[in-house]
Amino acid sequence: MTRFQRRATLILGIGLLASVFGFVAFAGIDGLRPSTISGAVLLAGAGAADVASYARDEYRIAGRTVRWRHLYAVGTGLLAIGLVVTTLPTIDSTPGLGVATLLGASSLLFFSYQALVDGPHLDLDAEPSKTRLLVVALAAIGCVGLGAVATIVLS
Question: Which pTM value belongs to this model?
Fold first, then answer.
Protein backbone atom coordinates (compact mmCIF):
# COMPACT_ATOMS: atom_id res chain seq x y z
CA MET A 1 0.00 0.00 0.00
CA THR A 2 2.77 2.42 0.85
CA ARG A 3 4.54 2.19 -2.50
CA PHE A 4 1.31 2.53 -4.50
CA GLN A 5 0.06 5.36 -2.29
CA ARG A 6 3.30 7.27 -2.65
CA ARG A 7 3.25 6.91 -6.43
CA ALA A 8 -0.35 8.12 -6.58
CA THR A 9 0.59 11.03 -4.32
CA LEU A 10 3.37 12.05 -6.70
CA ILE A 11 0.96 12.07 -9.64
CA LEU A 12 -1.61 14.05 -7.65
CA GLY A 13 1.03 16.54 -6.51
CA ILE A 14 2.37 17.14 -10.01
CA GLY A 15 -1.19 17.45 -11.32
CA LEU A 16 -2.09 20.01 -8.65
CA LEU A 17 1.02 22.08 -9.29
CA ALA A 18 0.53 21.98 -13.06
CA SER A 19 -3.15 22.90 -12.71
CA VAL A 20 -2.48 25.85 -10.43
CA PHE A 21 0.38 27.23 -12.44
CA GLY A 22 -1.49 26.67 -15.70
CA PHE A 23 -4.55 28.45 -14.34
CA VAL A 24 -2.50 31.41 -13.14
CA ALA A 25 -0.57 31.54 -16.42
CA PHE A 26 -3.72 31.60 -18.55
CA ALA A 27 -6.06 33.58 -16.30
CA GLY A 28 -3.52 35.90 -14.72
CA ILE A 29 -3.95 37.30 -11.24
CA ASP A 30 -5.59 40.58 -12.23
CA GLY A 31 -9.30 40.59 -11.44
CA LEU A 32 -9.36 37.29 -9.59
CA ARG A 33 -11.31 36.99 -6.35
CA PRO A 34 -9.29 36.74 -3.14
CA SER A 35 -10.86 33.32 -2.56
CA THR A 36 -9.57 32.13 -5.93
CA ILE A 37 -6.06 33.36 -5.19
CA SER A 38 -6.00 31.87 -1.69
CA GLY A 39 -7.44 28.61 -3.05
CA ALA A 40 -4.71 28.50 -5.69
CA VAL A 41 -2.06 29.04 -2.99
CA LEU A 42 -3.57 26.25 -0.85
CA LEU A 43 -3.74 23.86 -3.81
CA ALA A 44 -0.14 24.68 -4.78
CA GLY A 45 0.89 23.99 -1.18
CA ALA A 46 -0.96 20.67 -1.33
CA GLY A 47 0.85 19.75 -4.53
CA ALA A 48 4.24 20.70 -3.06
CA ALA A 49 3.56 18.65 0.08
CA ASP A 50 2.50 15.67 -2.02
CA VAL A 51 5.64 15.83 -4.18
CA ALA A 52 7.81 16.22 -1.07
CA SER A 53 6.13 13.21 0.56
CA TYR A 54 7.11 11.10 -2.44
CA ALA A 55 10.69 12.35 -2.61
CA ARG A 56 11.97 11.10 0.76
CA ASP A 57 10.92 8.80 3.59
CA GLU A 58 11.50 11.43 6.25
CA TYR A 59 12.68 15.00 6.77
CA ARG A 60 14.30 16.69 9.76
CA ILE A 61 12.51 19.97 10.50
CA ALA A 62 13.38 21.97 13.61
CA GLY A 63 14.97 18.94 15.23
CA ARG A 64 11.91 16.72 14.68
CA THR A 65 11.50 13.87 12.25
CA VAL A 66 8.63 14.30 9.81
CA ARG A 67 7.68 11.09 8.02
CA TRP A 68 6.35 11.00 4.47
CA ARG A 69 2.83 10.19 5.66
CA HIS A 70 2.77 13.39 7.71
CA LEU A 71 3.53 15.44 4.59
CA TYR A 72 0.90 13.41 2.76
CA ALA A 73 -1.60 14.29 5.50
CA VAL A 74 -0.73 17.99 5.27
CA GLY A 75 -1.11 17.88 1.49
CA THR A 76 -4.49 16.16 1.70
CA GLY A 77 -5.67 18.64 4.34
CA LEU A 78 -4.55 21.61 2.22
CA LEU A 79 -6.33 20.09 -0.77
CA ALA A 80 -9.59 19.81 1.19
CA ILE A 81 -9.36 23.36 2.53
CA GLY A 82 -8.40 24.71 -0.91
CA LEU A 83 -11.42 23.06 -2.51
CA VAL A 84 -13.74 24.58 0.08
CA VAL A 85 -12.18 28.05 -0.17
CA THR A 86 -12.50 28.15 -3.96
CA THR A 87 -16.10 26.89 -3.85
CA LEU A 88 -17.41 29.24 -1.14
CA PRO A 89 -18.24 32.19 -3.47
CA THR A 90 -20.40 29.97 -5.70
CA ILE A 91 -22.55 28.38 -2.99
CA ASP A 92 -25.38 30.89 -3.55
CA SER A 93 -25.64 30.17 -7.27
CA THR A 94 -24.90 26.42 -7.17
CA PRO A 95 -25.79 24.99 -3.77
CA GLY A 96 -25.51 21.40 -4.98
CA LEU A 97 -21.87 21.94 -5.91
CA GLY A 98 -21.25 23.49 -2.52
CA VAL A 99 -22.77 20.55 -0.66
CA ALA A 100 -20.84 18.04 -2.80
CA THR A 101 -17.60 19.94 -2.20
CA LEU A 102 -18.17 20.06 1.55
CA LEU A 103 -18.86 16.31 1.65
CA GLY A 104 -15.79 15.55 -0.43
CA ALA A 105 -13.63 17.87 1.66
CA SER A 106 -14.90 16.20 4.83
CA SER A 107 -13.78 12.80 3.59
CA LEU A 108 -10.40 14.21 2.56
CA LEU A 109 -9.97 15.73 6.01
CA PHE A 110 -10.79 12.36 7.58
CA PHE A 111 -8.12 10.63 5.48
CA SER A 112 -5.70 13.43 6.32
CA TYR A 113 -6.35 13.00 10.05
CA GLN A 114 -6.02 9.23 9.78
CA ALA A 115 -2.65 9.47 8.00
CA LEU A 116 -1.42 12.12 10.42
CA VAL A 117 -2.32 10.23 13.59
CA ASP A 118 -1.28 6.67 12.83
CA GLY A 119 -1.17 5.96 9.12
CA PRO A 120 -3.37 3.82 6.92
CA HIS A 121 -5.29 1.02 8.59
CA LEU A 122 -5.77 -1.20 5.57
CA ASP A 123 -3.43 -4.08 4.81
CA LEU A 124 -3.87 -4.67 1.12
CA ASP A 125 -1.99 -7.14 -1.03
CA ALA A 126 1.39 -5.97 -2.26
CA GLU A 127 0.19 -6.48 -5.83
CA PRO A 128 -3.60 -6.05 -6.06
CA SER A 129 -5.45 -8.16 -8.60
CA LYS A 130 -6.28 -6.68 -11.97
CA THR A 131 -9.97 -7.35 -11.36
CA ARG A 132 -9.92 -5.27 -8.17
CA LEU A 133 -8.08 -2.45 -9.94
CA LEU A 134 -10.60 -2.52 -12.79
CA VAL A 135 -13.56 -2.44 -10.37
CA VAL A 136 -12.04 0.48 -8.44
CA ALA A 137 -11.29 2.37 -11.67
CA LEU A 138 -14.83 1.84 -12.96
CA ALA A 139 -16.30 2.91 -9.62
CA ALA A 140 -14.20 6.08 -9.68
CA ILE A 141 -15.25 6.85 -13.26
CA GLY A 142 -18.88 6.22 -12.30
CA CYS A 143 -18.63 8.55 -9.31
CA VAL A 144 -17.12 11.31 -11.44
CA GLY A 145 -19.88 10.81 -14.02
CA LEU A 146 -22.59 10.95 -11.36
CA GLY A 147 -21.00 14.07 -9.91
CA ALA A 148 -20.91 15.73 -13.33
CA VAL A 149 -24.56 14.84 -13.98
CA ALA A 150 -25.59 16.11 -10.54
CA THR A 151 -23.69 19.35 -11.09
CA ILE A 152 -25.39 19.92 -14.45
CA VAL A 153 -28.84 19.07 -13.11
CA LEU A 154 -28.49 21.17 -9.95
CA SER A 155 -27.01 24.22 -11.72
Answer: 0.71
